[in-house]
Amino acid sequence: MPGPMATAAAEACLRKGMDLAPFCLTGPDIEETEIEITDPDTKRSQKVTLVPSTKIGSLVDKLGGVEGTVAIDYTHPSAVNGNGEFYVKNRIPFVMGTTGGDRDLLMKTVTSPSPHYCVIAPNMGKQIVAMQNALEFLQTQFPASFEGYTLKITESHQKKKADTSGTALAVIDSIKGMVGPKCTFQQDEINMLRDDASSKDFGVPTEYLEAGHAFHTYTLTSPDGSVEFELKHNVCGRRVYAEGTADAVKFLAKQVEEKGDGGGKVFNMIDVLEAGAL
Ligand SMILES: NC(=O)C1=CN([C@@H]2O[C@H](COP(=O)(O)OP(=O)(O)OC[C@H]3O[C@@H](n4cnc5c(N)ncnc54)[C@H](OP(=O)(O)O)[C@@H]3O)[C@@H](O)[C@H]2O)C=CC1
Ligand SMILES: O=C(O)C1=N[C@H](C(=O)O)C[C@H](O)C1
């Protein structure tokens, strides 16, 4: 906090009746200060003290233990792996919305030597998660049904975004399964738009150029060019992810409560959707 996504998630938690922990992490260069989070809908508000990420070790003592706490991580790709290790070491269940970092290492951290309670997903928006589930189904049921097709992807985000869209990377994995083993598409072929002029030309409304947007278009074209498929999901603002995040927190807290602190499990948002918790 007070990053835009972390703040939106905190507001959604207040809106859905949860309480915020009195301390949270902030970027390394910020002084320890108190801020107030207010949900614009319910006007429920709570004060939270920001602790710089350089003092992450002090957080558990400040919280007076971590029982009943679920961490929400919307930080920076460079913080993903260190934060993941911190939550595991301190037995804090967490919802990781932050994209980027070393994802294989993150999965190793949360699974070995034993699974840790967490939800990890590059996109928490219910409808996008449902779309991802449908694509998973297609690639499993009809592998290589788009054999020979060429894939093109353009994604546009606010220019402050540090990494390639984590959603696009996840969706590509499913689409590649539909194209089959001959698909040669590489991550560096994603057309990333991170400047206002290009984003505007791509259809992003002016007020969301800096304020936050996520426009994605995936195009599959047949070898002779006679058939074209286009998949598009365009989001303005961050509310859709914040709502899903708060639902994921509730889902995870319930898992911990029902199955006990001694266990652990790594979930994604499709698990949350399938459980009817979104
Ligand atoms: N899963 C999902 O549904 C979604 C995921 N995201 C992802 O969430 C992440 C955050 O998005 P957004 O809020 O837009 O990003 P911003 O970069 O705008 O904000 C990130 C915030 O995290 C702070 N920060 C940086 N490093 C650390 C650290 N080590 N520990 C704690 N806080 C830190 C920053 O502080 P400072 O500015 O001082 O450095 C800033 O306040 C991105 O990876 C984005 O891709 C976004 C939307 C939806
Ligand atoms: O940084 C963002 O804004 C977003 N990040 C996520 C991603 O990288 O996929 C989700 C969405 O695209 C918004």
UniProtKB/TrEMBL annotation:
Organism: Triparma columacea
Substrates-to-products reaction catalysed: (S)-2,3,4,5-tetrahydrodipicolinate + NADP(+) + H2O = (2S,4S)-4-hydroxy-2,3,4,5-tetrahydrodipicolinate + NADPH + H(+); (S)-2,3,4,5-tetrahydrodipicolinate + NAD(+) + H2O = (2S,4S)-4-hydroxy-2,3,4,5-tetrahydrodipicolinate + NADH + H(+)
Transmembrane domains' residue ranges: none
A cellular-component GO term for this protein: chloroplast stroma
Stated name of the protein: 4-hydroxy-tetrahydrodipicolinate reductase
Similarity comment: family membership: Belongs to the DapB family.
Domain of life: Eukaryota
Family matches, as Gene3D superfamilies: Dihydrodipicolinate Reductase, domain 2 (3.30.360.10), NAD(P)-binding Rossmann-like Domain (3.40.50.720)
